[in-house]
Write a structure and sequence with these properties.
- The chain is an alpha+beta fold.
- Helix content is 20%, strand content 40%.
- The chain folds into two domains: 1-223, Thrombin, subunit H (Beta Barrel); 226-321, PDZ domain (Pdz3 Domain, Roll).
- Strands 5-4-1-2-3-7-6 form a seven-stranded antiparallel beta sheet.
- A hairpin with a 5-residue loop joins β2 and β3 (64-67).
- The longest helix is centred in the N-terminal third of the chain and has 24 residues, at 12-35.
C-alpha cells in the first residue's frame, strides 16, 4: 500500500481537508493527554444508601477539586478516583447551589492540577474538548465548538447562573463537574448541564465564575449573599406610569409576598409593590434583584425605588444575610 503517494496525488482541496482533519485530531489528542491526569471521578453515597456520581478536576496540587454542587449535594460520603493515585475519601469544603459549584478536598500525593484559561478570550466557533465520566465510563473525551456565549442557566436553587458557555461537545450524566478545555489545554468552563432530548445543547459555567466562587469557598466555606424577604416575579410595568416617572425599564420585580419580620416588611413593603431600582441600579425583574442582593449589601442601608399603584416612592431597606 502506497498511502503517502496516494495522499500526495489527491486534489489540493481534498488534501487540504485531510490535513485539517489530521491537525484537528492532533489538537484533541494533545488536550486529552495533557488534561486527563487532572480529571477525577466522583462517587457519592446518600444517607439512605442511594448513590450517584459525576466528574471533577484538580484545581490546586494540594487537593482542592472543583465539581458541580448537584453532584455532591447532601452526600453522606464522597469518594474521588484519580487516574494515577487511586481512590480517596473526600471532604466537602463548601458548595454554592446558586452557581451549581462545589469544592471538595482530598489528601493525595503527586496531584496534577489543570491549567486555567481566560473566559474573556473565548470566541464562538473555537474548538473545545470535554472530559469526564459519563455513565461511569471513566475519562471519556468529546470534542466540539463553542456554540454561544453569555447564556444564562437557572440553577436548582432557582437563581440564574450568568456568563454560561453553550457548546455542542457531547455531555451526558456523569460529565457534570468535568472541565471544558480549549485547544491550548486550558480549562475555560465547568460542564454542568445538557438539555434533553435536544441534540448538542450543552452548557458549562465559565471559569471566571468558577474561580471567583472557588476563592470564596476556600476562604469561608460558603458564598455569602443578602436577602430582603420577598417572593417576586418579573412583571411588565404600566407604560403610562413608567413614562410619568421616567422609569428606564419596561418591567420590574412584582412582590407576590412579603415575609413577616423580614427586612422588606420592616421597610414597609407590601404585596403588589413593584421594585424598579436598587442602590441606583435598574431592576428589570426578579433575576436582577437577586443578582444585586450580594454579599456587599448585607447590613447596609439600601435605597429602593418602588411603584405602588400610581405612586412612586423611595424606601431604605437593610438586607440581612441569607442562610442556606
Amino acid at each position: 500500500m502506497r498511502s503517502d503517494s496516494q495522499f500526495v496525488s489527491l486534489p489540493p482541496e481534498v488534501r487540504s481537508e485531510a490535513e485539517a482533519l489530521d491537525a484537528y485530531s492532533r489538537v484533541v489528542t494533545s488536550v486529552a493527554e495533557s488534561t486527563s491526569p487532572a480529571v477525577v471521578r466522583i462517587q457519592v453515597e446518600m444517607d439512605r444508601g442511594r448513590g450517584g456520581g459525576g466528574s471533577g478536576f484538580v484545581l490546586t496540587p494540594d487537593g482542592f477539586i472543583l465539581t458541580n454542587s448537584h453532584v455532591v449535594h447532601k452526600a453522606a460520603k464522597i469518594k474521588v478516583s484519580t487516574p494515577d493515585s487511586g481512590e480517596f475519601t473526600a471532604r466537602l469544603v463548601g458548595e454554592d447551589p446558586d452557581t451549581d459549584l462545589a469544592l471538595v478536598r482530598i489528601d493525595a500525593p503527586g496531584l496534577q492540577a489543570v491549567k486555567l484559561g481566560d473566559s474573556r478570550k473565548i470566541r464562538v466557533g473555537q474548538l473545545v474538548v470535554a472530559i469526564g465520566n459519563p455513565y461511569g465510563f471513566q475519562y471519556t473525551v468529546t470534542a466540539g465548538v463553542v456554540s454561544a456565549l453569555g447564556r444564562t442557566l437557572r440553577s436548582q436553587s432557582g437563581r440564574l447562573i450568568e456568563d454560561v458557555i453553550q457548546t455542542d461537545a457531547a455531555l451526558n450524566p456523569g460529565n457534570s463537574g468535568g472541565p471544558l478545555v480549549n485547544a491550548a489545554g486550558e480549562v475555560i468552563g465547568v460542564n454542568t448541564a445538557t438539555i434533553l432530548p435536544a441534540q448538542g445543547l450543552c452548557f458549562a459555567i465559565s471559569i471566571s465564575t468558577a474561580q471567583f466562587i472557588a476563592t470564596k469557598l476556600i476562604r469561608d466555606g460558603v458564598v455569602r449573599r443578602s436577602f430582603i424577604g420577598v417572593q417576586a416575579q418579573t412583571a411588565p410595568l404600566n407604560r403610562t406610569i413608567a413614562r410619568h416617572y421616567d422609569v428606564a425599564s419596561s418591567t420590574g420585580a412584582l412582590l407576590l409576598a412579603v415575609e413577616p419580620g423580614s427586612p422588606a416588611a420592616g421597610a414597609g413593603l407590601q404585596e403588589g409593590d413593584v421594585i424598579v431600582e436598587l442602590a441606583g441600579e435598574h431592576v428589570e425583574g426578579v433575576d436582577v434583584l437577586n443578582r444585586l442582593l450580594n454579599e456587599e449589601r448585607i447590613g447596609v442601608a439600601t435605597k429602593l425605588i418602588v411603584l405602588r399603584g400610581s405612586k412612586r416612592f423611595e424606601v431604605n431597606v437593610v438586607p440581612a444575610e441569607r442562610l442556606g
